[in-house]
Design brief:
2 copies of one chain form a homodimer. With about 160 residues, chain A is α+β, with helices and mostly antiparallel strands. Chain A has 2 helices and 9 strands. In chain A, strands 3, 4, 5, 6, 7, 8 and 9 form a 7-stranded mixed beta sheet that branches. A two-stranded antiparallel ribbon of chain A has the order 1-2. The radius of gyration of chain A is 16 Å and the shape is globular.
Amino acid sequence: MERYVCGDCGHIYYSNPKIVVGSVVVHDERIMLCRRAIEPRKGFWTLPAGFLEEHETPEDGARREAKEEADCEIELDALLAVYSVPRISQVQLMYRARLRNSLFAPGTESLEVALFAWEDIPWTELAFPSVKWALNHYRETKDQAVFTPGTNPLV
Amino acid sequence: MERYVCGDCGHIYYSNPKIVVGSVVVHDERIMLCRRAIEPRKGFWTLPAGFLEEHETPEDGARREAKEEADCEIELDALLAVYSVPRISQVQLMYRARLRNSLFAPGTESLEVALFAWEDIPWTELAFPSVKWALNHYRETKDQAVFTPGTNPLV
């Protein structure tokens, strides 16, 4: 295992997989997407999501990311999916959520934020595969109170 | 946010929450527990679990930990629970699993490994709260093909 050691103090920095937390946020049966203002995939549409911070629960992290990226208050409903991207050592926890009110606006990392009816989702302009997976798993389970969280599709 | 910067190269090492992966492993309706050979909580019983490694999926990590701690082959069945311990910046993904055969033995981090009937579980000698939570959520959902993964109990 590769390790980073500080030249000054000898402290070993273990490199670990990172956790991304995010949400499929719904309002009036439309789904929130954010157009990315930053790389990677600048200009493409994504779910409000980002890296979990130290001493933060995944649920708090998902709410914080919605606030930061779409300036909105959300209520989490269920764990929608757990995706992993081992190539980049990432585990994503995606929640099913709703807007607490109809207010939202682009945060600094978003060019725009919009609510899309299912038939209007810009499928060819989604930023990451897991955005598509999460949207589809939301669609399949949206009327179910109890369901199995999604995982990566078998390839 | 506190950051570590290498004195030699200036590289910033972000400190992120860590992912623990583990399993409630069942065989003949008995549940596998491992008695810890290492601190913290040496001598107490735990589930086969440990830190997810770089470029590893959570499922692969859970299987690896069962192999390392109990020298057994397991088959994952479902995501049992997602627990978080924000005080120590930890997120735990716990799976429901079964032994592929009846073979198991203590790994280097276990003093002993044993299968317990529900009524024989050493509740007062469990290593961590989340071990108890996972065992109880397993018990509540073990006959359900579709269920909601457990989360931290409300406190």
